[in-house]
Amino acid sequence: MIIHVGTHGNLEFLPGKSVALSESCYPDIAIGNLPHLYIYNSDNPPEGTIAKRRSYATLIDHMQTVMTESGLYGDLKELEDLIAEYNKTKTSDKARAHALEHIIIDLIRKTKLSEEIKLDKKLESGHSFEKIIDIAHEAITRIYNTQIPDGMHIFGEVPEGDKKVEFINSILRHDSELRKLIFELMGLDIQPSEAESEFLAEVDSIAKEFISAFLAEEEHLEAAKGILGDRLKIKDENKLSLMREKVMDISSRIEASDEMGSLFHGFDAGYIEPGPSGLITRGKPEILPTGRNFYSLDPFKIPTKAAWEIGKRLADGVIRKYEEENEKLPENIAMYWMASDIMWSDGEQFAQILHLIGVEPVWKDGRVKGYRIIPLEELGRPRIDVTVRVSGITRDCFYNCIELLDEAIHEVAMLDEPMEKNYLRKHVSALGNVRENTNENGTEFARIFASKLGTYGNGVNLAVYASAWKEEKDLSDVFVHWNGYAYGKNNFGVEAHDSFVSQLKTVDLTFNKTVTDEYDLCGCCCYFGTHGGLTTAAREISGHDVSAYYGDTRDQNKIEVRSLADEMRRIVRSKLLNPKWIEGMKRHGYKGAGDISKRIGRVYGWEATTQEVDDWIFDDIARTFVLDKEMREFFEETNPWALEEIGRRLLEAYERGLWDADEEVIEGLKSAYLEMEGWIEEKMGDAKGDFQGGAIDVMTMEDVEALAAKMKDKQKEWKKSLL
Predict the structure, then answer these.
(1) For residue range 601-655, what is the model confidence (pLDDT) as tens digits?
(2) Within-domain flag for 718
(3) Structural domain span for residue 226
(4) pTM of the model as a whole
């Protein structure tokens, strides 16, 4: 028996068929007939499904990390307090308010929010101070509203006490149900998306008091009186009772989780009960209890009608933002379409893509049965062309969605409409008369691309981590080489590098989105490798500037589209540089240090592929993790190799000209790096041989060819042994 401690390993992503593997497929060769128990995060159905399909795994799912408010810290907290003070004194003490104006502007610059809100441009165009602080406060609230993991989940443990309260609160945050109830009890007619960060912090504290009172089995109306006091304006016993029932249900589900017991039951060849999967923090308490063998969803229900409404708003938001910034419509939007869009959000991005080309799904009994072409007069704008890089899991698990999109693209491109109203037709026609001539592989309509059949990955992240590139063109070449395979109704992994390049020539912007705070753009190297690689390739091949955008559907009442640079700023401020997040990671010693290092490596990856990371971010990373004496001691004691990787990536960013570093910071970094090397040499002791630091071993093409030859010989030996 094999116990796979994962989410995720390499076994299920080895070369071979996507499903129904043969004896020639590497996962099948590796696992054979061994029973395979796989410990897996319940929030990851995309990769968990692949583990089942390609390595015959029985999953033992585990609970997701307890999420908590990001909170505000340092200068950001001071800025929030000063804005609140200004709003109180602007009518009662005008002299004090005037003095605060200068202090607040200086602090907006110091916190680097000036770049995010485009402060100088707004000052030059005559924006009022009140308007500027409104925009600044909106950015601060966005940071506060970001949830962060409180350390990591430990297998077999269930949250207790305050952690349990935090966990339940994070589940109720998705649709702001408890927040809205508190507003109502206080007699306030506002939406959470409209509230300011100071008030939201107060309401979230009240929400936790309610949860604690419910768990202590206090009478719900008496609890409300005790918590809100004179602020209790509306005594809605029915809604309080329903909320109490919901809290108690989630609590009982948490208590029923038995991850370690399920694993031991698997040791005895016992039956592991199935259960749903997904993001608990998107309002899905049914994922609990954990310790089950999770399943995913019906792919023929994608996109759902709810996801279609979100997708339309996303499509309109992307077009509107690009038009505002460029005074023209985008003709071709390149997207990274992941399976998590389908399994976490029921196909919001799929719906967005369909709406961009002017197509609407047709449902029957909740299942998608086809599509309807939206007439131009109803659409009210041109049909936008799309270039879609799908993940390997989307390709392998949701091919019905790919076929539906491909069929719609073909039909839209052939519509008899003016070129200026149908950019798909315009770009296809640019390749020649498609009605009479087709290219060699029949891929002139190809808009959906991925890696070669039986393989996964984008190639770019490996090149970046191995430092195996000199200029952006190298990364562009790697991306096109790895990902230039067309998929659709009549193309299944057809080599189509020329068609891919033709599409990339007309790309105006690239796009991906977030649906949760549990994962973000620094959560995995595939994000910068694919979205970043797509951006690099589009810029290099088109020869013009290509915008990079990020969508946000975490709050369905407030769908946002922002620049990739702004999304990076949000993530770095709310997590990576947040003392609260750092302390959570430090509790886990070696593993926590390693995860900090990985996230910083991904920040570097985004800069290498997009140049959308501000210099101040690298400055603050260096100051926070390398130049700080206490942090350096933490890494020295728990995981010096993680800090060496951080230092090496920062120095590489500086040497490549990706980071215009503060001179004092770079000198301190160089000195600290020499100190790190000393630690590592001491820890190695008398060890002999060559060592490669970091997460990637660098191999030459000769090494690869030699390894391939060895693997071929080994595969022949395995086959003989099976006969």
Answers:
(1) 999 999 999 999 999 999 999 999 999 999 999 999 999 999 999 999 999 999 9
(2) no
(3) 161-256
(4) 0.90
